[in-house]
Amino acid sequence: MGVDLLNIARTGVLASQSQLGVTSNNITNVNTEGYHRQVAQQSALLPQQIGGNFYGTGTYVSDVKRIYNEFASRELRLGQSTLSHAETSHTKLTELDALFSQIGKAVPQGLNDLFSDLGNLVDQPDDLGIRGGVLNSAGQLANAINQIQSGLDGQMQYTNDQIEGVTKRINEISTELAHLNGELLKTGEDNMQLLDEQDRLLKELSGYVQINVIPQEGGVKSVMLGGSAMLVSGQEVMTVSLQDGDPFPQEPKLAVEVGGNPVAIDGTKVGGELGALFQYRDETLLPSMHEIGQLALGVADAFNEMQKQGLDLNGEVGSNIFNDINDPVASFGRVGAVSDNAGTAALSVEITDTAALNGTQYELSFTAPSTYELKDSRTGNVQNLTLSGTTLTGGDGFIINIDSGALADGDEFIIRPTAGAASGLKVEMTDPKGIAAGTGVSADENNAGDVEVQITSIDNRGAANFPVTGSELTFEINTATNQYQVYDADGNAVGGPTAYTPPSISAFGFTFEVTANGATTESFTFDLSIKPGDNSNALQMAKLNEAKLMNGGKSSFADVYETTKQNVGHKTKSAEVSMEAAEAVYLQAQARVESTSGVNLDEEAANLMRFQQSYQAAARIMTVSQQIFDSLITSAR
Predict the structure, then answer these.
(1) Among 179, 222, 240, 453, which one has the highest count of C-beta atoms within 10 angstroms of its own C-beta?
(2) Is this prediction's pTM over 0.85?
(3) How far is residue 83's CA from residue 574's CA, in Å, rounded to a whole number?
(4) What is the C-alpha to C-alpha distance for residues 446 and 194, in angstroms, rounded to an integer?
(5) Residue 471, helix vs strand vs coil
(6) Rounded alpha-carbon distances, angstroms, from residue 534 to 249, 353, 384
(7) Residue 290: enclosing H or E segment and its boundaries?
(8) Residue 337's pLDDT band (boundaries 50, 70, 90)?
(9) What range(s) does the Flagellar basal body rod protein N-terminal domain occupy (predicted)?
């Protein structure tokens, strides 16, 4: 028995052929997404003993392996999740920044135009054309605020649609992964095509949410959504769903259905594209809406209150220019009751002081028998409210009315004082004569400012001693005794002292309200004659441009808008920096995976030549073996 050259050559040819096949497959899949480089492991056959010596018997391909590094792949998935989160955040914030910069520029322009026209009104208070211009500018400002709110509503709808689309794709991928797990249980982890497809799907899924992958036997992998919920367990799939927002249905929440029951998940914590969408919606878009609503309330309230301080061209107390801040349209959506409340209470929110509003939302909770806690969602500050009759007081510029029903222990409500204001803002006044450019009351220069008066109605201009120019009346009001003394233009007493029931005083054909801070005596002079050239109240309206009437006396109207715009701009810039950093980390992780599992064409080309030469050499051995065999046969004849 001798060395079997022909068989050795055959094994060499077959091994080289296998190596060429693996190398060729690597080369042709160089652009296949998710493909991992394969390597054929070649081993020597067992030797045979001849005459006390051991001679080799050839070679064989013992295994074909998929080059895979679990640690590098995990880092790549994490990098993909972080990058997708950063890219989505930057894209959404860029859209919002463009909305404020383009459509939103009409808001500060509208404010400028309105105050410019008010300046003209100060110069010519009886000009109906200028008065019409003021109303027109007020309408344009309201329209600008309506438009920015409409744009924000569009962003809300688009973002919700994106959330729905991503959620649907997550479920599709989860189903595919569960199916692959089933196939791998049948074929084992030697099926490298299935493993590559599994890895590709895991990488795609990590772009939508941050995942934890749990390897199991046979190549099977279970997947968790972050560390909070199982998405895929073997061949079982847990469906991700969107539930109507509670208490606001238009803000859907994320849930994972376990055993047919939805388990709520905080969408802002899931990472990836989905987490970025929830964060953008809940932490940027909604606060921007609330702040624009705050601006709308501030503008409407300030001008309407100024109207009440003056007289129009008809000699009447000024009526509202804008719709009332507490009318049903403006107050829509201010309260939401959590669905599992046991009580039957229906609540409404009434704005009492726009200066105290801060453009945030609150959580109201009731603990029996009489504890009402209001938590600021932005700062976390908690304040206790006081129940007076059916009204809860103590909020930041608002009160809460219990319109019907009763609260039960543990009931919760979401309070959004500025919700709906921007979309509901409109100009009610149609008659230019209704602008209250003049005023009918002036405070004595010696007043300390502890008492304020506001004319509420002109009841009878024909009443005796009705105050007109030259026949003004001065009211000396004592808030300690709730009495007033009236003097004519010459300083003579006109009856009295007279008692009144706070807050209203009605006398000499008109009515006004008194607001006092403590017990004191102050004087006010009334002249309610129709004075077309009077611009005193228009002058005060014009000063609203620079007045710090918002955020507790810290901000003007323009400041509120610019602050919101700047906050969006800062977040956009920050998101850009985060995106660049995430991209660098992702590229490093990708390079690490490529260096291990990727196909290097130069290396494969060298292997192709090497295995081609080994194939040719083995074939040459077969030729030599054949020649030796022929020579042996010839010599034997």
Answers:
(1) 240
(2) yes
(3) 14
(4) 90
(5) coil
(6) 51, 29, 47
(7) helix 286-308
(8) very high
(9) 6-35
